[in-house]
Amino acid sequence: MSNWNRVKVLGRGSYGTVFLAVPTSGALDFVALKVVSIQDAHSLMTEETILLNFQGCPEIVQCLGSSISFEGDSLNSIFYNLALEYAAGGSLADLIRRREKLPETEVKEYLRMMLRGLYYIHERGYVHGDIKPDNILVFPDDNGKLRLKIADFGLSKKCDEFEEVVIATNAKPRFRGTPIYMSPESILFGKINTSLDIWSLGCILIEMISGKQVWSDCRSVGQLVKRVVNQMDLPDIPEELSREGRDFLSKCLEQKSEQRWTANMLLKHPYLQEDQLKVDEASSIWSDFNLPQDIYCS
To answer: pTM of the predicted model, to two decimals?
Structure first.
């Protein structure tokens, strides 16, 4: 695979840097280039291996290739590069910050996209493990609409690689992902399975509707653990959320992980079906009159 010329820094993390880049040969399409030193290459190689399982899924960011670059003679000057689709629209977190609150009809469409991606991930035996708005990328299309894609599989694992590890009450909780999006069982027992991603999705739903992160009143991880695990609290439900939306949310934030709905079940929930049925019915009505569908949609 070609090497890439770095254009500018998009962000920095614990292990490396993400650049906007263009390939040194071929079409000059922008890519998001994750770069880590060769000592830290294992995590990026693992992410690449996982991403290759999801090639062709439109709701998951696509891996475009990898390479090793040399910028000197020392080991610290050798880098592992992973090229991914570049999201010109930034992340869902950026979108929420810009718009504060998203209308519920738009939220439902984004939920469908995320759930289709999660269904694809879970069906292939993986858990994402860190679903949050920062890891959902926004891709504007030619029609001005936005498409969401799940990204950052650095904490993902095969489902059967996880084991339940009981954490003593006096021990610090072990987080694989981001604490405010973690489910009760993942905080208390270190239990990571597909139902964790569904809990995280429920937290994202609240954030899209309210414009605020869940547990925003908790000032420390300790307070969060106390409320989620000891008091078995649930995040505050936005007043703006419809009755159907509240029922949908309850299936995501079910305390008992085994009773939490799956991605496939949630895609069939009436909350996400209603608008789709209206579109299908409208298409059928206009087809009876032999009129172009874009007349109805305009």
So the answer is: 0.86
Q: What pLDDT digit, counting tens, does each position of 243-295 carry? A: 999 999 999 999 999 999 999 999 999 999 866 545 444 333 333 334 333 32
Query: Which residues are designated catalytic?
Result: 130
Count CB neighbours of 59 within 10 A.
20
**Structural tokens at position 51:** 């991403």
Residue 32, classed as helix, strand or coil, is strand
DSSP characters over 212-245: S-TTTT--SHHHHHIIIIIS---PPPPTTS-HHH
| 193 sits in which H/E element | none
Which helix (H) or strand (E) element contains residue 21? Answer: strand 16-23
Residue in 55, 59, 31, 132 with CA at minimum distance from that of residue 91: 132
Cα 202 to Cα 58, 89, 121, 179, 294: the distances in Å are 22, 23, 17, 14, 33
d(CA 100, CA 210): 8
List residues forming the annotated binding site: 34
User: pLDDT tens, 15-38?
Assistant: 789 999 998 877 668 999 999 999
User: How far apart are the C-alpha atoms of 280 and 157, rounded to whole Å?
Assistant: 38
CB 187 within 8 A of CB 173: yes
In the chain, the amino acid numbered 144 is G
Residue 291 Cα to chain centre, angstroms: 38
Direct distance between the N- and C-terminal alpha carbons of the chain, in angstroms, rounded to an integer: 43
C-beta contacts of 42-47 below 8 A and 24+ residues apart: 43/15, 43/154, 44/15, 44/16, 44/80, 44/82, 44/154, 45/80, 46/154, 47/82, 47/152, 47/153, 47/154, 47/156
- DSSP summary character for residue 40: G
Annotated binding site for ATP: 34
Distance CA 103, CA 107 (A): 6
**Sheet containing 4-12: order of strands:** 4-12, 16-23, 31-37, 78-85, 63-70
